[in-house]
C-alpha cells in the first residue's frame, strides 16, 4: 500500500474566506495539501474514498461537498445553519487534524489527475481535435484555474467535440448563483477568442441552483 500523504509538520493557521457561492466557504491554510495545479472535488462521502480528511469532514452532518486544492479546503454546506455558527468548529477541526499529522490522501491524486486529463484530451478524437483539446486545457490551466481557485473552486476540461467544450464545475463553482455568468461571459468568450474552433462551452457537475 502506498504511503499516505500528510501536510508538512508545524503550526497551522487557518482563516475562512467567503466565496461567490453563499453555501460554500473557503478555508485557507499556511500549509500545502496538494501540488500546485492539482485539485480534487468530492460531491459525496462515497467519492472521497482516497481522502481520509474529506471523509472526516463528511462526518459533520451539514457538510455536503468537499473540495481540496494546494493550500485550501472549500466546504459546501447543506443546511440552513449560518456560517458564523459553523466556521469555528470547522476551523478547529482542520487545525487539529492537520497539526496531528492526519492523512490527507491515501494515494497522491496528481498522477491520476494528469492521466485522466490526457485521456480526455485524446480518447477517440481526431488529431486535429486532440490539438484543439490540448489548447483548451492549457488555457484553462493558465488563465481560468488561478482565477476560480481564488473563489474556492475549479473548472476542469472534460471533452471537446464538434465545437462544443464540456467542462466540470468543482467546489464552490458547483451550484454558485454566478456560475452561468462566469461560464458564458468569461470562459466561453476567452476560449472563442483564443481557439476559433470553439462554438460553445457547457458545464457538468452543477446543481439546479447553479444553472
Give unreliable regions as ranges. 207-211
Report strand order across the widest sheet.
2-3-6-5-4
Our count of domains comes out at 2
| Gross morphology | globular
Please count the helical segments: 5
What fold name stands as the CATH topology of the largest domain?
Ribosomal Protein S8, Chain: A, domain 1
Write the element-wise H/E pattern from the N-terminal end onward. EEEEHEEHEHHEEHE
List the helices and strands and how they pair.
Blueprint: E1 5-6, E2 14-18, E3 24-29, E4 40-42, H1 52-57, E5 63-68, E6 72-77, H2 83-99, E7 103-105, H3 109-121, H4 127-150, E8 153-161, E9 164-171, H5 179-194, E10 200-204
Parallel strand pairs: 9-10
Antiparallel strand pairs: 1-7, 2-3, 3-6, 4-5, 5-6, 8-9
Tell me about this structure.
Belongs to the NifU family. InterPro entries: FSCA_dom_sf (IPR034904), Nfu/NifU_N (IPR014824), Nfu/NifU_N_sf (IPR036498), NFU1-like (IPR035433), NIF_FeS_clus_asmbl_NifU_C (IPR001075). One of its GO terms (biological process) is iron-sulfur cluster assembly. The chain has helices at residues 52-57, 83-99, 109-121, 127-150, 179-194; strands at 5-6, 14-18, 24-29, 40-42, 63-68, 72-77, 103-105, 153-161, 164-171, 200-204. It has 211 residues and is of the alpha+beta class. The protein folds into 2 domains: 5-107, 2-Layer Sandwich (Ribosomal Protein S8, Chain: A, domain 1), CATH 3.30.1370; 123-204, GMP Synthetase, Chain A, domain 3 (2-Layer Sandwich), CATH 3.30.300. The N and C termini lie far apart (41 Å). The relative contact order is 0.16. Mean pLDDT is 85; it is low at 207-211.
Amino acid at each position: 500500500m502506498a504511503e499516505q500523504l500528510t501536510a508538512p509538520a508545524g503550526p497551522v493557521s487557518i482563516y475562512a474566506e467567503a466565496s461567490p457561492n453563499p453555501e460554500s466557504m473557503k478555508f485557507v491554510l499556511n500549509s500545502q495539501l496538494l501540488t500546485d495545479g492539482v485539485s480534487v472535488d468530492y460531491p459525496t462521502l462515497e467519492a472521497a474514498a482516497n481522502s481520509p480528511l474529506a471523509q472526516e469532514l463528511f462526518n459533520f452532518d451539514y457538510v455536503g461537498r468537499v473540495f481540496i486544492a494546494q493550500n485550501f479546503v472549500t466546504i459546501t454546506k447543506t443546511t440552513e445553519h449560518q456560517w458564523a455558527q459553523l466556521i469555528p468548529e470547522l476551523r478547529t477541526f482542520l487545525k487539529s487534524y492537520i497539526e496531528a499529522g492526519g492523512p490527507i490522501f491515501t494515494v497522491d491524486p496528481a498522477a491520476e489527475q494528469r492521466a485522466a486529463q490526457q485521456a480526455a484530451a485524446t480518447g477517440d478524437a481526431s488529431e486535429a481535435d486532440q490539438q484543439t483539446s490540448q489548447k483548451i486545457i492549457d488555457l484553462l490551466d493558465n488563465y481560468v484555474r488561478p482565477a476560480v481557485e481564488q473563489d474556492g473552486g475549479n473548472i476542469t476540461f472534460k471533452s471537446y467535440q464538434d465545437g462544443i467544450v464540456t467542462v466540470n464545475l468543482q467546489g464552490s463553482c458547483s451550484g454558485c448563483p454566478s456560475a452561468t455568468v462566469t461560464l458564458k461571459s468569461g470562459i466561453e468568450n476567452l476560449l472563442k477568442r483564443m481557439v476559433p474552433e470553439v462554438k460553445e462551452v457547457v458545464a457538468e457537475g452543477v446543481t439546479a441552483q447553479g444553472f
